[in-house]
Structure formats: structure tokens, C-alpha cells
Amino acid sequence: MKALEEAGGMFSAYQVHREREKSLQASIGREGRSEDGQSEDGQKPEDYECILDDLRFGWMYEQVNTHAPLLCGLLDGLMAPKIERKDRPPRDPSKFNHRTAIITSILCYSRASEGSNKFPRVFGAFLHSNGVKRRVLDLFHQFGGTVRRYGQLLNACVVYDNFDYREGVKHQLISNHAEMRSVTTGKVFRGADIPPGGLRKSMLHRETPLSIEDLFYSPGAAIYDETASKIDSYFIAEAIRTAYPKSVKSIFSNSDIPFPAMPTVELLELRKTDSKTLGPILFNEGTLDGSYEVIESIYKRQFQLDSKEFDNRLFLAFGDQKTSSLIRSMQAEQVDASISYDRKDWLIGVAALFHLRMNFLWLMQKTHYGNMEQQDASTLYHNINFWGRKNIPADRAAFQVLEELVLHSFDARVIGLLYTRLEQYGIDTSDQEEVDKAIQNMNTRGFMDLVEDVRRSAFGPEAWRPSKEKHANNTVDEEFLSHARYLQQMVVYKTLKYGIKNGDIGLIDRVIGVCCFYFEGTGQSNYAFEMLYLKRLTSTKACDKELRRAILSNSLVNPHGCRDTWQEVDRSLEYLNLELKRELWARRTSTFGLDALFKTTSLTAEYTVFLRKTIEKAFARKESSKHSVPSPVDDIHILAFELACDSIKFYRGGRKARHQAPDIHTIGLERVATKKLEIFNAKVMRDEDQIIVPPYETGGATADLDPDNDMMAILPLEDRDEAHEWGLPSDIESE
User: Fold this and answer.
1) Burial of 260 (0-12, 13-18, 19+ CB in 10 A)
2) Origin, by domain of life (predicted)?
């Protein structure tokens, strides 16, 4: 049927060109036809045969007859003559079969215009960006060419974020009058795993609280289960394979034991996400007033939804933490409004996963960076200087360089643990070739035993929480403890990254639970609150299972439709923002400012970027513009050897360290269980039968991580009183 649709598309743009027709007739009729253009049976070729000579009409007719026999019979009956004439030779049935195929192709094309032609979408974007009258847009809306059509789909989802642009001086002035402009960009996309009737308000139960049981028994949050063990083993083996790929491959090439695999929890079905850029939104979504205008612009002006649509439906809006927080602020402010649209209870704001990844990297930087006075080999500060890495500040470093640093540091620590074990067998770990041979000489069982030994030593609960007796006897190896906590925190990040790339929302859900404690333990209260909110939606009876899956599933998009090409929905918007900034830099003039540019490029930027890349790919010189990334293997090896000499060795008699990684899991768990959870439920619950008053909360909600705070000290966890059901240390006093 796709071939039929493509054939029908040809007729939509076909115009008869007499000279071209004559040349085609001449080329087609050289063989099997006489000089007057007739075929051997005396029949003259028809126009469509001259133009579309390369199409297999006979095969197309067979496909029509196979897949649509009723339609084929109807067309044959309509084209059959009422009376068979005796004064003419019998007609060629193949000619009419060809016409049946052509008519069917036109019908297929007319019913699948989106799949076979991008013209409606591009033309709608062009009209919208040039300010065409509403009545014209309504007309083209019927053809499927406007943003409104996408927004009115029952499975439509939205992602939007702020777009900050520094507008420089337009004219020659004495002083510099550059200003920072904040507008909003967004996308609407076809959601997945949404019921045919759309999401309904009845699927959300706002009166349901989040309990400590929901958090504690959530997979991956506080209990080390079999899945966590398999995840650790996979990342350990993968780190070794990254450093020594050929050796590890040789071990498993002829073995019945497979290489450790990442467990699958809840994989999404493959799909290719269909999205469309929203029109210009000249408001700052980072403020409460601006958020009102953004919601009005999207759902009322661009989607033009009727007021009754907000009575029973639910809409998903993805963004950063501030987006979700401001949506809840609007709902709290308008809780007593009489009109459904004004109450905003039809909107669920979800903090998307790319911003979660960025904040988790900053969490790693806060807890393990160190400084000039605390530059143990277990700190990132030491690793940066050891490798000579640059442009990595101590606070909120750029995403790309920080992620590269922490991932390479993880691999180096795992290889360092490997070297400490190989040294026990007399292997010179300073020589990579000798290590290569040692790994090749292992059998599969020996390699897996080595992976298991590394996992038990640094990835188990005992490695994170030394016993109370060790603290009392001063036998805690503080430097190894920092290494172990770094590795276990990085496993959470690597699990999140793997789950996103491969579309496993079950792995993502495991990460959300532990992030509730991690962010609270480091004083990042805003994201701790956001993770509690997301955990309440995905792991409690506050959401029906259809809504829960829709939230997690639509947090990811797949632009290419492959298994490992999933990405965060807000990251796809960041790519659009990058291209939009390039458009602004290229086209801005002294008289053509941000507002005018944003209005004309916000809708068309995505298409023009695609068009530019396509033209460059077809006609430009074939030169790769990608930055060549050097292999990290050498860096990993030299740091691993440095760590294996002393730092990452385990001292049973204990060892002091200048830098001590805080026990953010226990601190966060204690804070959430004793006070934060009550405050959270009071803020998010809506119960018509009772008035919920949030308890008084002391201290700032966005306090930064203070390494000198007593709550950031290393806390013994083995002092567990039977009365502490959740394993909270009895010697920790609540605030």
C-alpha cells in the first residue's frame, strides 16, 4: 500500500508537458511499437503510460485485488461497458486493470497525506509564522496543516522550557545596553500508551498520600535486591570490557556462559515519535505570571481547545523542575475557581529526565569534588588534576565535560579494584599488555568470580554502611568508604542513563525512589520534592495504571525508532533551542530583533534545519564535522594504576582521610521519614472532606549542601533499634 500511496502522490503534482511527453513517448515506443506510436496490437499508449512507464501496474493491480477485493470489484464493475460492441475488437483488460491501480493509489494517497507528503505540515508552519488570518488557518486545519490539529488529538502531550537569549546592542551607543531576554519554546507530540479516549481526571486520585512504606519498599530505593546485584555486575563487567575489549571478547567467544546482561524491567514498545514545534510564545515561563500566559498561549490560542475539554480530561506537560513547581503553584492559587480551565487541575506537570540527569551530576560534584585541602585520590578534584582536565569549575560544571569526568572516574575505580586482585597473583598491573594476557588466560567462570568479588567488596550495602563496631574501634577505612559511595552513587546515574537510552521505564522508576533520599540528603530540597511528587504518581494509588504508564512512557521520545535511540523529551527540546539560537545568530540585524526573529523562526526552525542538513548531505563535500573524541582507555589505566597502589586498597585496620563522602542516603531517608514527607503530603493532597494545613517548616527550602553541617557527617548505620521499622539509625536525632 505504501507504493500505491507514493504513486498517488505523483498525480497531485503532475502537469502535462507536451514536449516532455513526446520525448517520453519516443523513448518508450522504440521497441514493440510502430512509427505512428501504436503498439503491435494496434492500440495507442495512454498518457499515464507515457509519464509513469516505470511503475509496475500489473503488480499494483494484484496488490489491490489481494488487499481490497471489494474495492477492486466495485471499480471493475463501474468501468465495465453496459453493452459489448461487435464492431470493435475486444478491449485489453490490462488497460482497465492499470486504471484500477491508479484510482486506488489516488484514494490511498488522499487518506494518508501525512505519511506520504510533508507539504501540509510545512505549509501550515509557514502560514502560522507569517500571521495568516484565523479563518484561513481554520480552513487549512481541516487539511491537517496547523499546530491546532496536533493539539486537539486525544493523545497530545506538550513539552516546553525557557529560551534565554542575550540581545546585544542594536545601534552605536555610548554604553552597553545588552539585555537578557526570556521567552518560551515548546513542542507538541503524539503521546503513547494513552487510552483511546484520552487521559481522564478520574484516573488521578489527589486525596491519596505518599507513605514511607511506598518509598521504602519501592524497588531500588532502600533494599538491595537481586535486580540491583545484576545491575552492579553488568556495570563492573562493562567497565572491564571498556578498558580491555579484546581480552574480554576472547573469554566469552567460545563459552556457554553469557556476558553479564543488564536486567530488563519494563521495556517500552518501539515507536517513532511524531512531534511538531509550537508557535512563538513571548512569555517567561520561569515566573508565575509568565506561566499563566504560556498555558493560555498553548492550550487556548494555539490548540484552540473548547472550554468543555477541560472538564474531564487530563493533559501532560513536561519541563524542568521549575515548570512542574509553577504548575502546582497555579493550581494551589486557583483551587477555588469556578471554571475548570481556571482551576488548572486538568494539567499534570512532570519534571523531565534530562534535567534530572544534570542535577544528579551536580549532586555527584557536590559530594565528591573535594578541594585544595581535601585532595585525596578518592575526590574528583584529584582526578581532574591528575588527568589535566580543564574548564570544570567546582560548582555546576557543563553537562558534557562533567559527565565525561564522572564516567571515566567510575571506570578507573573499577579497574583499580581489578588491579588490586591481579596483583595478588603477581601480575604487573603497570603493563597493560601483561594485564591483557592475564585476562585472556582466565576462563569464563574465573572472570565472573572476579566480577563478583569486586561487587561484594565495594557495591554491597556493607560497603556503604560500616558497622557501629568499626566506628567505635576506629577501624573504618574512610578513603575506601568514599570510593565505595562514589561507585554506588554512579550506578544510580548509569542505570538512569541506560534506562533512558533503551526505553526501560522500569529501570527509570527504580532510580526515582533512591533520588528522593539522595537529593534530600544533599540539601537539594526542590528536586527532592519533585522526586517525591513523581514517585507518588508512579508508585502509589494516586494514579491508575494507565496514567502511571503514560507519565513514564511519554517522558521519553524516540526520533529514529530504534531500540537504543530513546532520549528524554526535554532533551529533544534542548536540541531545538540550540538550532534556534543558531538561526538567531545568523539572521539577526540591528533592526530585526529577537521578537521578530522568534515569531518567524520558532515554527520553521526544525524544518529548515532538516532541510539544510539534507542539502548539505547531498551536495556538500563529504567531510565529517564531528569532534574526534580520544579514547579514554589510557587515562583510565593510569588513574586505575595510581589508585591501586594505595588509595583503593581496603585497610582492615582502618584509615583516616581528609575527604569523607557523606552518607546522603541515610540522611535523606531520616529527613523524609521524620518531617519532609508530612510537609509534602500537605502540599500536594487535595481532599474535599477536610482542610489540610502544611506544617511549619524551618530553614530554607533550597539550602545548599554545607559540608560543615553536622548532618553531612558520616553516620553509622548498624545501630538499628527494633523500634525503627525502616532501619533508621537510632543515634540520629531529627531536626
Assistant:
1) buried
2) Eukaryota
Q: What angle do CA 627, 632, 633 make, to 5 degrees?
A: 140
Q: Parallel, antiparallel, or unpaired for β 315-319 and 275-277?
A: unpaired
513-539 CB burial, b ≥16 within 10 A, e <16: bbbbbbbbbbbbbbbbbbbbbbbbbbb
User: Residue 458: helix, strand or coil by DSSP?
Assistant: helix
What are the CA-CA distances from residue 540 to residues 213, 319, 327 (Å)?
10, 22, 21
Give burial (CB, 10 Å; 0-12/13-18/19+) of 185: buried
Using CA atoms, how far apart are residues 108 and 328, in angstroms rounded to an integer? Answer: 46
Bridge partners of residue 698, in order along the sequence: none
pLDDT digits (tens, 9 = 90+) for 605-647: 666 677 677 766 776 666 665 667 788 999 999 999 999 999 9
Note the pTM of the prediction, 2 decimals: 0.76
Q: Which of 636, 500, 659 is nearest to 571 (CA)?
A: 500
Q: Residue 281 contacts by C-beta under 8 Å, 6 or more apart in sequence?
A: 160, 183, 184, 185, 186, 293, 294, 297, 298, 602
**What is the chain's mean pLDDT, rounded?**
81
For 661-674, the three-class secondary structure string (H helix, E strand, C coil) is CCCHHHHHHHHHHH
> Could you tell me the three cell numbers for 201?
481526571
Judging by DSSP bridges, how do beta strands 275-277 and 179-190 pair with one another?
antiparallel
C-beta separation of 101 from 4 below 8 A: yes
> 289: how many CB neighbours lie within 10 A of its CB?
10
Tens of pLDDT, residue by residue over 476-512, are: 999 999 999 999 999 999 999 999 999 999 999 999 9
Amino acid identity, residue 395?
D
